[in-house]
């Protein structure tokens, strides 16, 4: 531990915190990371992005072989999933990455301090309480709050870890629940719903809004719902959840639609209705750190809070709760602290739901543009007319490009496709550099690739798609 104060103490080692710490060390700041969990990496690496994608990948292989194997000339006997092996692989992937984060921090000379961090002395000291109760005080010039978020609990549907669970448990069920009811049709609900449905669970997704994936365009939601229904997921939309009921040895989720009571038998209920910022116990009230009505730390465009020397980034502040958003904010914040020109372009943050097909967007959507009265033109191209998609048995979905009708400037894109998470990366740079639909249309994509559908959609903005009638 240095005699002099740290230049920066980061509270939280999620993607926001650990990336910020690495960048700070690169910039020559004496940096420490305080983490309350025994492993580094935060929600994303331990119970979020990475383990969910590991499960999605394993179950996609299983489901594809089970349902499409014969079409591809694969004759296999009865396939049975081995949940313990699947979870073991997930754990190994997580272990490699969290170990990697530790190594990266150590190699950069970042001090890793295990314990719960609390702001003290007007943000010039971080008090760290270790698991054994001992308290360590870290003097610092700056503090970065990167404490992330946790699952929101519904007051009438409290988590009990047994029947009513959050994604923290649903990412590690030891066996396939016969009947899984998922509350919430956003990214987490649809992804974990898909995982367990592919493994044989009877999954019902109950959503208060009239459509699934409501952050995306309406046509994307509609087709995604149809395709997921084909995979066995059931959707109950416009249904307001009211609680749980037990009858003759069976548990039920209770809900209402148009005043009518609804009852869904459930062996597990996954509540995936959003996440809330982690500020409890942080000492916010004691040092006068300003929070908004949702409990998020209020920051300006340089990630400065109202307390001098205290900054915040990631899920604990406003904006989309995404790992890459947290990372970019971490880097920008630290660069600003070091006197450089850190910047995050909030208009070009991609957003993905990793179902099959995946749902991805960047920038402005058509539904949003309509709601905001922003003029736009769209070009849409169906994957059914894309050679690689057909060859890969992935012809469901489409690419949509949204552009300014006057200047042709690219406004956004929505993609429903196998690997849409990778495809959206072919559009994002055009948006980042202020490109036009014409720029996308003139970009050469290798043949045959699904990315060619992006070019076709961009051509369709000007009604000149080649492989469309
Ligand atoms: C199931 C699931 C799937 C997801 N999938 C994706 C995805 O595919 N893509 C994506 O972009 N995002 C995904 N997310 C969201 C993503 O995980 C978060 O946006 C991201 O982790 C936020 O990063 P963060 O650094 O702000 O916070 P976190 O990752 O939450 O990290 C915060 C860290 O701070 C620690 N901490 C909190 N309080 C204290 C304290 N007082 N002292 C010390 N340490 C503290 C916590 O233990 C934690 O390690 C998913 C989330 C879930 C739950």
Give a description of the structure.
It contains 15 helices and 22 strands. It has helices at 15-26, 42-47, 49-68, 83-107, 167-170, 187-198, 218-230, 284-287, 323-337, 366-372, 387-391, 420-423, 428-432, 437-442, 452-461; strands at residues 6-11, 31-35, 111-114, 116-120, 125-129, 135-145, 149-151, 164-165, 179-183, 202-207, 234-237, 240-247, 250-257, 260-265, 268-271, 275-277, 310-312, 351-353, 358-363, 377-382, 398-403, 410-417. The strands form five sheets. Strands 1, 2, 3, 4, 5, 6 and 17 form a seven-stranded mixed beta sheet that branches. Strands 8-15-9-10-11 form a five-stranded parallel beta sheet. Helix 1 runs parallel beside helix 9 (323-337). The longest helix has 25 residues, at 83-107. The model has no long low-confidence stretch (mean pLDDT 97). Flavin-adenine dinucleotide is lined by residues 11-17, 34-37, 42-44, 48-49, 52, 116-117, 146-149, 167, 171, 188, 278, 281-282, 314-315, 321-324, 326, 354.
Describe the structure concisely for a colleague.
With 469 residues, the chain is an alpha/beta fold. It is built from 15 helices and 22 strands.
Notable traits:
globular; 25% strand; 7-stranded mixed beta sheet; alpha/beta; 469 residues; binds flavin-adenine dinucleotide
